[in-house]
Design a protein that fits this description.
18% of the residues lie in helices and 41% in strands. The chain has helices spanning 2-20, 27-38, 44-57, 70-81, 88-93, 100-103, 326-331, 406-415; strands at residues 105-118, 131-145, 149-159, 185-197, 202-209, 245-252, 258-266, 278-286, 289-290, 293-304, 308-310, 337-339, 342-354, 357-366, 373-385, 390-404, 423-433, 438-448, 459-470. The strands form two sheets. The chain has a 16-stranded antiparallel barrel with strand order 1-2-3-4-5-6-7-8-10-13-14-15-16-17-18-19. Strands 11-12 form a two-stranded antiparallel ribbon. α2 (27-38) packs across α4 (70-81). The radius of gyration is 29 Å and the shape is globular.
Length: 471
């Protein structure tokens, strides 16, 4: 009884307040009334009484008793989402300006991954499986510069080698994109300024950048925090992206259908002599939409002019030793040469084929005179959980291969006395949304002929990832 009385008093107070403020009523007040009516807070009679009084005091009239159009529903959602009940547009119209502190956006996440091997005899120490953990935390801060630019800083901390550290499990496709150096540290991962022109048709970014945020991107396979863990399913392994350092990118986006981008960084990822050994990449991207199914088709080419140390003619230095004589083999010095001619090209595609199914594919080629593999490709899909009543969950699957270059095959065959084979990699994950802040993802990877060495065992790597977001 007390609750009913309290509820009635609240309704009376609210309706009385609306009557008192009728002389200053605006379209937003009408939207509020509609929202209250729709939610059952006030009755149709009370609503009509307020509207009739409003007609006598203002020229603003409602279209219908209850919002039915998409535009009106959107207004209701905007009102509901207001912090304090005032939209930014209304604040600007009333002369209020958003303070600089209020305009700063601060968010980030903490990612924890536990990962272990199964049936792996090539671990360190040999003959045993291992389990490792790795943690990474990101703090991201962005702030507008008037209405034409943005300043962004990403501070990162981490700990743990992960399975890919200390030689435990090596593969061209990688093991864990969250892996760290093993030391607990705190550093600036990104820090840049972005300027926009002509209503975002031209974007220019300069500072300490991560070019993988702009090139070879993919809706299905691009984020180790919630999607695939293997590095080869995050970005194309047939692109020699430098480490985050001084760089720039320029994007021209005349419309929503296509855009053209170019990026630059020092090829060796250092801050000294930044222009002497450049990494340069250019990309054209198309974004068609057919029958509400979205797609992205990207084609790019790149060059990395840093010095690459390679064995020029492995056949000339053939070493015949028993395979068990690995220590003797390591003592033999093989002459190497330096080659700056690093280059390649590739494509990254994602396409919705159904409302809850999206396919992806990547193909890349790189200079076979330098790199151990010349062609790498991957394909797969993700499915959201609509069909099993878990709309925000994601099931992902990927498969890829790294085809060895002839030079690297000769190196394995004649110098390492090993049997060269194409590396094959498979991964499946399930991202379970616990709430808006927490995602839990079991993950399984299968490595076949890792590093192109036919003697390597087929290995499973099982993982459990937790991603905790904050804002």
């Amino acid at each position: 009884m007390f609750k009913n009385a309290l509820w009635q008093i609240t309704v009376v107070v609210l309706v009385t307040f609306l009557f008192i403020t009728l002389s200053h009523a605006s379209e937003t007040d009408i939207v509020v009334l509609k929202l209250l009516l729709k939610k059952g807070v006030i009755t149709q009679k009370e609503y009509d009484e307020v509207i009739n009084e409003l007609k006598n005091t203002t020229t603003v009239e409602p279209k219908n008793s209850v919002a039915n159009t998409k535009e009106e529903v959107k207004k209701e959602e905007d009102v509901t989402a207001q912090a304090g009940g005032v939209k930014e547009e209304e604040a600007a119209a009333s002369g209020q300006e958003k303070s600089f502190v209020d305009s700063i956006d601060i968010n980030g996440n903490v990612i924890v991954v536990g990962q272990g091997t199964v049936e792996n005899s090539d671990n360190v120490p040999p003959g045993s499986d291992v389990t490792d953990a790795v943690l990474r935390a990101d703090l991201k801060v962005s702030a507008p510069v008037y209405d034409v630019g943005t300043v962004y800083i990403n501070l990162r901390a981490g700990a743990g080698f992960g399975l890919g550290g200390e030689g435990r499990l090596s593969a061209f496709y990688g093991v864990n994109g969250v892996e760290h150096t093993g030391k607990e540290d705190f550093h600036m991962n990104e820090a840049w300024y972005e300027h926009t022109l002509f209503d975002n048709k031209i974007l220019f970014t300069v500072g300490k950048v991560d070019l993988t945020n702009y090139f070879d991107t993919n809706v299905v396979a691009n984020d180790e925090a919630t999607q695939f863990l293997a590095g080869g399913f995050i970005n194309n392994i047939a692109v020699e992206f430098p480490a985050n350092t001084m760089g720039a990118r320029l994007t021209l986006a005349p419309n929503e259908l296509y855009d053209v981008s170019v990026g630059w960084q020092p090829g060796d990822g250092v801050w000294e002599n930044v222009f002497s050994k450049p990494f340069i990449i250019g990309e054209v991207a198309l974004h068609p939409q057919i029958a509400s199914l979205k797609g992205n088709y990207r084609l790019y080419g790149w060059t990395n002019r840093k010095e690459h140390e390679v064995i020029e003619n492995p056949k000339d230095y053939a070493i015949v030793l028993p395979r068990e004589s690995a220590s003797k083999r390591q003592d033999i010095e093989i002459p190497t040469v330096l080659n700056k001619d690093g280059w390649g090209f590739g494509t990254s595609i994602d396409q919705q084929v159904y409302s809850n199914i999206t396919l992806f594919g990547r193909v890349g080629y790189q200079n076979d005179n330098i790199y151990p593999f010349d062609i790498a490709w991957s394909t797969g899909f993700d499915i959201n959980g609509d069909m099993w009543s878990r709309t925000d969950d994601i099931l992902g699957f990927a498969y890829g291969m790294a085809h060895l270059s002839s030079r690297y095959e000769d190196e394995l065959r004649y110098i390492e006395n090993l049997s060269p084979k194409t590396e094959k990699h498979m991964e499946v994950y399930y991202s379970l949304k616990v709430n808006d802040k927490v995602y839990i993802s079991p993950d399984a990877q299968l490595f076949m002929d890792a590093l192109g060495q036919g003697e390597k065992d087929t290995i499973w790597a099982l993982a459990l990832r937790g991603t905790f977001n904050f804002r």
